[in-house]
Amino acid sequence: MESSAVHAATIRLTHPISSSRPFLSHPFKPSNLNLNLNLKLQHKFPLASHNPSLLQPLSATLSDAHSETENVELADLDWDNLGFGLQTTDYMYVMKCPHGAEGVFSKGELKRFGNIELNPSAGVLNYGQGLFEGLKAYRKHDGNILLFRPQENALRMRMGAERMCMPSPAVEQFVEAVKETVLANKRWVPPPGKGSLYIRPLLMGSGPVLGLAPAPEYTFLIYASPVGNYFKEGLAPINLIVENELHRATPGGTGGVKTIGNYTAVLKAQSAAKARGYSDVLYLDCVHKKYLEEVSSCNIFVVKGNVISTPAVKGTILPGITRKSIIDVGRSQGFQVEERLVSVDELLDADEVFCTGTAVVVSPVGSVTYLGDRVSYRDGVGAVSQQLHTALTRLQMGLAEDEMNWTVELR
């Protein structure tokens, strides 16, 4: 596993800002990190009851694994009732690709979480030139923190940036920035089994542009928030409605990259569905209106016997990292996993249906409503959904041996 080495002498922190004044920077010193936070840390990390000796304290500074450690204290939150909403944390990470830098991002820095300033003519505000990613950090019982496949997020952002005519941080820059952000906010990583720290990297055209063109300057920013379950049902069946009039993506468009505009496109149908009591919306292809694409923010799988099928990624469907992981986990457990066109008729005839995504992880589907007809699958969580959810989350939380080499451990 990779080390969490971060060279603190090169990191800079800043004070909170308001809309009326810019960031004020000062050098970051590892010895005074906790003093600079100047925040009351109220909850000590609970020791593992079955073996207290397993829980070694995390490092008090952003340094390598050999540095002196101290007791880790957690933020004052109700960890048992953590939902999926924004909880502002201490620090964010900012890195820029200035005009004339030929696509090269300068070294980034940690700043106190706060508002950012943008020119009214910024490319992201006027032409939607923006991408985002999502990944999670989990706390292990020994106190260390695990990231799940951050390199995949870096590669997906680079792929999306090429489509959106944007420069992108190198994979190494992306991963190191994620590590620094997580370690700076480590008191916000929930206790084992209580949730995760959701990490949101953003890439945006921040430079001013009036005519339709790529922005002259770009900003890469990462913030984080502790989260619980995405759906209020938790690991319980959700109810979907199939949308056959509105579509989230078209062939040749940007449905296959994680651009901000893809999610605005689903808000109308999703809002209407939730007002009627559904958990979310499942979209069909816009050409034939018969093949499954994806749910508003996650991929879809259908199970029939020992075969698990998911729509093939061909430009209109986001190549989800959890999707990719479940395909590999499913095959390793003896399932036949297929990536192909999946019709709505197969959905209605399935033994089991589930969704995957960074936010939802694996979420079983209890019912699907299509053209007014409701099809229910089972009262409880399906056996395949449960099996795959357990296998994946045990990997993510460090409870199972990582034979896939997917996790990155921060000590």
From TrEMBL:
UniProt entry keywords in alphabetical sequence: Amino-acid biosynthesis, Aminotransferase, Branched-chain amino acid biosynthesis, Pyridoxal phosphate, Transferase
Protein name per Swiss-Prot or TrEMBL: Branched-chain-amino-acid aminotransferase
Catalytic activity: L-valine + 2-oxoglutarate = 3-methyl-2-oxobutanoate + L-glutamate; L-leucine + 2-oxoglutarate = 4-methyl-2-oxopentanoate + L-glutamate; L-isoleucine + 2-oxoglutarate = (S)-3-methyl-2-oxopentanoate + L-glutamate
List of residues that carry N6-(pyridoxal phosphate)lysine: 258
Superkingdom classification of source: Eukaryota
EC class: transferase
UniProt xrefs under PROSITE patterns: AA_TRANSFER_CLASS_4
Organism (species): Lotus japonicus (Lotus corniculatus var. japonicus)
Family, as annotated: Belongs to the class-IV pyridoxal-phosphate-dependent aminotransferase family.
